[in-house]
Amino acid sequence: MSASLTTSPASNKPASNESHNDLNSDNKNTASANLCRHLNGAAKNSPTELAVAVQTASGSFFSAKTLQYQEISFLELDKQSDRIAHGLGAYGIKRGMKAVLMVTPSVDFFTLTFALFKAGVVPILVDPGMGVKNLKQCFIESEPDAFIGIPKAHLARKLFSWGKSSVTHLVTVGGRSLLGGVTLEEIAEHGSSEAYEMAWLDEDEMAAILFTSGSTGTPKGVVYSHKMFEAQISALRDDYGIKPGERDLATFPLFSLFGPALGMASIIPEMDASKPITANPDYLFAAIEKYQCSNMFVNPALIERLGQAGVQEGGGDEPSQHKLPSIKRVISAGAPATISSIEHFSKMLNDGVEVLNSYGATESLPLSKMGSQALFDTTDITDNGGGICVGDAINGVDIAIIAITEQPITYWSDSLRLEAGQIGEIVVKGPMVSKRYYRRDSATEQAKIQDGEQTRHRMGDLGYLDSEGKLWMCGRKAHRVDASNGKRYYSIPVERIFNTHPQVKRSALVGVEVNGQSGASEIVPLLCLELDKSLSCSLGAGLYAELNAIAEQHSQTLGIKRFLIHPEFPVDIRHNAKIFREKLAVWAQNKHKE
């Protein structure tokens, strides 16, 4: 690497390279956008108020862990990110360049991310849980100019040649730069203490690249603009009612960045954000209590884990219930949470405090929301194959349902809308909807529909709108089974029906190929089952007879006659809820041939 630190003043003018050509591809407006304007405002209006607190657990394997906290105010966060922005420029990382950011949630993560945004450098954010092969492909596609990461990330970069052909600048965070480049401390030392002249971008310019997790397909780089970030901030402020001065237990790194933008402190617990199911509930409860958090952002895996941990063994025969009296709002997103897990979790909350279930995706979030009390009222419909209700569209979002097709749709027409009650693909429009994938023209063509000056996104999910305009989810488009007899089966309606059986923990619909009566190959539905290990489950003919009886009672499941017991479903690491049905389909096909 030839890059070195200099004391020359940083410039936020666009770099004249290919990266900025990509950045400007959606450029149509006057440059006036930058997420960091909110941080500037908080630094002026609430300079000494807490912006970020990061919890760490220290101690040996054999002793109880001690919890410690690192804090930073809004003014300090603003100043430190200014200094780092200057230092990045001195090192040659300038506006229009792209920088991989693989830093664990920490104060450094916040100062770095805001510094990159201030400098107009495009951060590339990836989910470490997506696997080595997918990570390498992400870096091949995004061609980063800089790699900013903890020592562990740099070791992986070296071992797996991540970004080898494009990276010219290396920054190590939280350790020595043994593998080249400079440390964040050196960046800060060469940064100026003067206020940084923020880079103002056109509202549709590329501000960040966020890669999808790959849990439902190949990871794709979603191009984020400051307009999208602003729309997300507005939704959290207006639709979710978040106010300045609140404190949020943030368990998802990207969401935690919105805290300072909302004038809300982000409290980061000691946990692996890529594997929330492994989090220690005691640490999270301790952080909530110390800072009297009013808001929580948790995914379904944490909802279930914390709900179970909330039931504590007391001194008597009856278990005691942990309480979270400071919490006023819980936001859940990432995958549908089960009603039973929400019910358990809600026992820790004060009366009237709800779990707000949000629907969306990396390409567009949030789109709709539904409170837990209303969700509880839909249990019977869900259990009888009506899908999962994800509520009403948030302000400014238009949700439509179109006929299922694998063909691209170039231009939108209202004639594409299906009537209420008809199942089809979910299509959305709103200010938080992304316009394109990064260097994935085919994927962009498949997922995007031009609607005048705006872009609609095809979610790849199936569902319907009821007569009141509420959205009901029926599963991924790729997970439907079109049987050879002409009947179509949808994953969520089918699975939720069978999940009512007391021995079934979860189920997964797949299609398998069999030889028909005529000798020709046919596609038939098959249900994979994971049984509840806490029960003494029967694997005999009685269980299969009961499953067949359930199938015959509902139109959504009529014709399903094949069942296979799987020891433990393959699921995504982050949510522990998204079932890898593609893997189960291969397993089921092989088992069926045995």
UniProtKB/TrEMBL annotation:
Region ranges (Disordered): 1-30
Superkingdom assignment: Bacteria
UniProt feature, compositional bias: Polar residues: 1-18
A Pfam family of this chain: AMP-binding
Domain AMP-dependent synthetase/ligase span(s) in chain numbering: 68-438
Alphabetized SUPFAM superfamilies for the sequence: Acetyl-CoA synthetase-like
PROSITE patterns per UniProt: AMP_BINDING
CDD domains: FACL_like_1 (cd05910)
Designated name of the protein: AMP-binding protein
Source organism per UniProt: Shewanella eurypsychrophilus
